[in-house]
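Annual report, structural modelling task.

Input specification for the iron/sulfur cluster complex:
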Amino acid sequence: MTITYEYEDALYVNLTNKCNCACEFCLRQGKAQGSIYTEDSLWLEREPTREEALDSFLSWDVCTYREIVFCGYGEPTYRLDDLLWLVDRLKEKFGDKLPPVRINTNGHANLINGRDVCPELKGRIDTLSISLNNDNAADYTALCHPVQGEAAYQAMLDFAKESAAYVPNVVMTIVDKDKTEQEIENCKKIAAGLGVKLRVRSFIDS
Ligand code: SF4
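The model returned the following structure:
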């Protein structure tokens, strides 16, 4: 079972396969069709305990990486409590030498956890990369199929705006595939209105 792995000088952490979305561009969608997913050890046969995840971290030379990234083939904030526990343990052990910590997220942490988790990110998470994906709730829902329906779009925007008060670097992302210039421009305005940056990324990216 692969819990932590290296990618482009960063140390990635894979805690869960759970997600409340079923994005049409997600690698998860290829799992049943013989894609790279079928062979991929990143699909967890079970979720690791947080102690197993900590042991996995400590098997690497943690402080040599440029960043620690909670990502994987699921939504990491399903395990936010364990994620923050891990960050606390790593900060205890490595202090200021710990590389910056990023979460790649769909921005639904408050919906998933049933509480406002933004204040809990303060002093623990350096970067949030939030998938904006679209410039309106209807298209977002058609693309990402969140179980909460269109309400998930506004919840994601609210999360981005609020988290900027607690996390130094909040970035919203869109995938360039199938986006018009106008849609990209609209997304830039949305991010700016929330007080966060927008990154336009290619189809397969970190
Ligand atoms: S939110 Fe992320 S993990 Fe979930 S389906 Fe979409 S791309 Fe995949």
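Residues 161 and 194 are 5 Å apart (CA to CA).
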